[in-house]
Write a structure and sequence with these properties.
This protein is an alpha+beta fold. The protein is built from 1 helix and 4 strands. The chain has one domain. Helix content is 14%, strand content 30%.
């Protein structure tokens, strides 16, 4: 797994955007509606709903990976 910066949408519980550390943060993240949620790094526990293969595909096409999680560790 690559390293990601994780952002959470403040208006929708559990909606997250993972952006590779080596990539630019998408413009919509700077809208004030998203908060930084930490880093996902190799060897660290990712949210249970995070799909590494889907993330690789999404990043290849979009530059980021949107997913929804019910993992309480990442909702605070």
């Amino acid at each position: 797994m690559r390293n990601y910066n994780l952002f959470r949408l403040t208006s929708v519980e559990g909606l997250c955007c993972a952006v590779p550390e080596s990539s630019a943060v998408p413009a919509f993240i700077g809208s004030g509606r998203w908060t930084f949620g930490g880093k996902l790094a190799q060897g660290c526990a990712a949210p249970r709903d995070f799909d590494d293969r889907a993330a690789d595909t999404a990043v290849r096409f979009n530059g980021f990976y949107l997913f929804q999680t019910v993992d309480r560790r990442f909702l605070a």
